[in-house]
Amino acid sequence: MLARYALLFGVLVVLCFSSAVSGRAQENQPDIQVVVDMVQLNVAITDDKGNYITGLGPHDFVVTEDSISEKIATFAEGDEPARPQDLPQRNDKSATPAPVTPHPLPEPVAPDKPYRTLDSLVAGANVFILFDTSNYMYRGFVFAQDAISDFVRSLETADKIAFYSYSRDLFRGSPLTSDRSQVLRAVRTTVAGDDAALYNTLLLTLKDAGQYTGRKVVVVFSNGPDNSSVIPPEDVAELAQSLGVSIYMISTNQAQLEPISTTVFQRMTAATGGRAYFAKAWNDEKRAFASIRDDLKHLYSLSYYPQANPNHGWRAIKVKLVGEKLKKYHIRTRDGYRPQPSRFSATPATDSPQVADPAVTVRNKQSQ
Question: Which domain holds residue 91?
Answer without folding.
Answer: 39-78+83-108+300-341
